[in-house]
Write a structure and sequence with these properties.
- The complex is a heterodimer of chains A (about 170) and B (about 190).
- Chain A is mostly helical and about 170 residues long.
- Chain A has 2 domains: about 1-130, no CATH class; about 135-175.
- In chain A, about 80% of the residues lie in helices and about 0% in strands.
- Chain A is built from 9 helices and no strands.
- Chain A is globular, with a radius of gyration of 18 Å.
- Helix content of chain B is about 80%, strand content about 0%.
- In chain B, α3 (about 40-50) packs across α4 and α6 (about 135-150) runs parallel beside α8.
- Chain B has about 190 residues and is mainly alpha-helical.
- Chain B is flat and about 50 Å long.
- The chains are: A mainly alpha (about 170), B mainly alpha (about 190).
- Chains A and B meet through α1, α2, α3, α4 and α5 of A and α1, α3, α4, α5 and α6 of B.
């Protein structure tokens, strides 16, 4: 039963995964943490960090990891990853086939343009929800967040930023 | 050809870290310069579409390149190639790390990592805000409020945004009315 739920959840995440990686984290958070309650927020934060540090698309890495964590075996991983890829795969195939027709469609362009503010809202809401006691438990963690923000803003590679944060964590705590 | 597609995207999947945007140049080099499957302009045209489709856009790129070069099987081969390396790596980590969850060093590392993750999420968000106009920013703020405070499903908001975009095409004729419509339509569906 949990396999079916996992599959359906990830189909939904894949289908509405406009904007790729970070907006998809919001969907994953809403579906897996808030609605299903399969993993905790702290667990998701760790999973995101690992997904960022490993090669490949972050949302799919996340699916693989969540699938394993929820079911405790490889099949859960495979199922979640497949479900996450299936809707984008189908939709993109359709787009490729009907490429010329939809290329300059006014409705599609406008719909996508007005989804963008929603995407920004989505990501901002996730960032806010992640700013909880588990993440910011003392002032040093706030300093780490601030420094990381500036670093990534200045186009420092996110992986190096994460590694630096990890080293800082080991040294301080 | 199928095998070439698989191998090309396997390499892309194995060696690109972080966001999909880091993959652009690597994909471009492999697909346009090396294999000559696409003209550069055509590639970027399709690429724009891949960005607007749902899902990670490296995945979408794999689909359109795979399909154009090798049909259905080509698309499938490219996607499997792209996903396979990280799938195996993540699976190893998921299996291995769970055992080390209680390890103090690992724990301390993650305490440092978590605030960094928040920063990683915040940066693209702030970057995207810079590209919006005023009514869109207001809409974004409203979206944050209803998601964070009221717990409204993000999926619902995405659909509302798309709907709003479609509706605006009809009312777009008076160019000055556009901003007002953006603000009004945003408030009505909230309660």
């Amino acid at each position: 039963m949990i396999y079916l739920q996992l599959f359906l959840s990830y189909l939904k995440i894949g289908f509405f995964g406009f904007g790729g990686g970070y907006p998809m984290i919001t969907l994953i958070h809403n579906e897996i943490v808030l609605q299903r309650g399969w993993i905790s927020q702290a667990q998701l934060t760790d999973i995101i960090a690992v997904s960022q540090m490993t090669p490949g698309p972050i949302a799919i890495n996340c699916a693989t990891y969540v699938g394993y964590t929820v079911t405790g075996n490889v099949w859960g991983s495979l199922l979640a990853t497949t479900a996450c890829c299936l809707p984008p795969l189908t939709i993109m195939l359709l787009i490729t086939i009907f490429y010329k027709k939809i290329r300059n469609n006014r409705f599609m362009t406008s719909a996508l343009a007005w989804m963008r503010p929603m995407l920004v809202g989505l990501i901002a809401a996730t960032a806010l929800l992640f700013m909880n006691r588990e993440t910011f438990f003392d002032w040093t963690s706030m300093v780490i967040a601030g420094v990381c923000f500036v670093a990534v803003w200045k186009k420092v590679n996110p992986i190096w930023t994460l590694i630096a944060a990890a080293v800082t964590g080991i040294l301080i705590y | 050809m199928i095998w070439q597609l698989f191998w090309t995207f396997f390499k892309i999947g194995a060696f690109t870290f972080g966001s999909g945007y880091a993959m652009i140049s690597l994909i471009e080099r492999e697909v346009v310069d090396h294999h000559r499957w696409f003209e550069r302009e055509e590639f970027f045209d399709q690429f724009t579409l891949a960005q607007s489709a749902p899902g990670p856009f490296s995945l979408n790129t794999a689909v359109f390149v795979g399909y154009r070069v090798g049909g259905w099987w080509g698309a499938l081969a490219a996607v499997i190639g792209l996903v396979l390396p990280s799938f195996v790596i993540i699976l190893m980590i998921a299996m291995y790390l769970t055992g080390f969850r209680d390890n103090e060093v690992v724990n301390a590392a993650f305490k440092g990592i978590r605030p960094c993750v928040v920063a990683l999420i915040a940066v693209p968000c702030v970057r995207m805000i810079q590209k919006l106009n005023v009514p869109q920013i207001l809409l974004a703020v409203a979206a944050v409020a209803v998601i964070a405070l009221l717990g409204v499903s993000p999926v619902l908001l995405l659909m509302l945004g798309a709907l709003l975009g479609v509706v605006l095409v009809f009312v777009e004729k008076p160019a000055s009315g556009k901003e007002d419509t953006g603000g009004d339509t945003d408030k009505s569906p909230r309660p």
